[in-house]
Design brief:
Blueprint lengths: L2 H4 L3 E5 L5 H10 L3 E5 L3 H4 L8 E2 L11 E4 L4 H9 L17 E4 L5 H12 L4 E4 L2 E2 L2 H5 L4 E5 L2 H14 L2 E6 L3 H29 L4 H10 L5 H12 L8 H17 L5 H15 L10 H8 L21
Parallel strand pairs: 1-2, 1-4, 2-3, 4-5, 5-6, 8-9
Antiparallel strand pairs: 7-8
Helix pairs in contact: 8-11, 8-12, 8-13, 9-10, 11-12
Length: about 325
């Protein structure tokens, strides 16, 4: 996409945290007309060097065509959008807000419905657009979105989502994207726990972790996720991408959805308790892959970093 094509819409961005910063940077570096607000201005200011405009008042973004939101919680989302000093705090009715709001934060189904109703009063269409991948995945250009909401809104936002990531799958209207993301994160928890169990089993039998995971990743069971987490498992670098407490929250959302739709989720239930145990051990400053340490302790072994270079499968792509 050329600079002239990406500069047609006025874009706004709210939230430059662990993921939001790199997502916004990809838009700025692509030449988009991008205005950025973050609660702590200093975290957003480096984006000015990439061509973004940094503002102190989030209400300035209400004049944008499309506003992206990437914050941590539903409480934060409500505050920055409809709070006393939020995006819509100076709006009086329909036409006073952005045409489209793309909400990328991890929200529950009920929260997403409430947000959609709030925005409708201002004539703003909501796209629920949760994603899969962390900061390194974003920088590699491999982030994946699943999107739901009005089709015409999706068509307008899709070129910009394609700049941020490699996939922006349209799931349909309403909150269907939230269901997809909930299912995704339930599987994330179950897979990382299973990966921890078999890795510890192999190690206790005498197989180096790097050798076992190299085989796993090259087998039919290997995946983008197992490759991505292999360096952490091999070298015990648990720099946080997602803390255990947030994964636990995601598993709770999955279990709530299971109850709502009468679907039993026994593996998710057990995994939720194991991840909560990691939180209880005081490991919330570590990445959720630290469930490996918990599995090792339960198995009577102490893991040591193997200090072996491991390919995580992510090669940075040009922004």
């Amino acid at each position: 996409m050329t600079t002239s094509q990406t500069s047609k819409a006025r874009l706004g961005w709210i939230g430059t945290g662990r993921m939001g910063f790199d997502m916004a940077r990809r838009l700025a570096r692509a030449g988009c007309d991008l205005t950025v607000w973050n609660r702590t201005r200093g975290k957003a200011e480096p984006l000015a060097a990439d061509g973004a405009k940094i503002v102190d008042d989030v209400t300035a973004l209400a004049r944008c065509d499309i506003v992206f939101v990437m914050v941590s919680t539903w409480k934060d989302t409500k505050e920055v959008i409809s709070g006393p000093q939020g995006l819509l705090s100076k709006a009086n009715g329909k036409g006073d807000g952005p045409r489209i709001l793309v909400e990328c934060s991890p929200l529950s189904l009920d929260a997403s419905v409430e947000l959609r109703q709030t925005l409708a009063a201002y004539g703003t269409q909501l796209l629920a657009a949760p994603s899969s991948g962390g900061a390194r995945v974003i920088r590699a250009g491999k982030l994946a979105f699943v999107v739901s909401g009005p089709k015409e809104a999706y068509d307008a936002a899709a070129p910009y989502l394609a700049i941020i990531g490699q996939v922006a799958a349209y799931a349909g209207d309403g909150e269907l994207a939230r269901i997809v993301k909930i299912c995704h994160n339930v599987m994330l928890g179950v897979v990382v726990q299973s990966m921890a169990e078999v890795t510890v089993l192999a190690e206790k039998a005498g197989i180096p972790r790097h050798a076992f995971l190299d085989f796993l990743n090259k087998s039919v069971m290997g995946s983008t996720f197992t490759r991505y987490k292999s360096p952490a498992f091999v070298n015990l670098d648990f720099t946080v991408t997602l803390p255990p407490s947030l994964l636990c929250k995601d598993l709770d959302l999955g279990l709530d959805a299971g109850r709502k739709f009468n679907v039993p989720l026994p593996l998710a239930s057990v995994t939720r308790d194991l991840v909560q145990s990691a939180v209880g051990r005081g490991w919330n400053a570590l990445d959720f892959a630290a469930v490996l340490l918990q599995q090792a302790q339960a198995s009577g072994i102490e893991l040591k970093p193997e200090n072996v270079p491991v390919d995580d499968g992510l090669e940075p792509a040009a922004s």
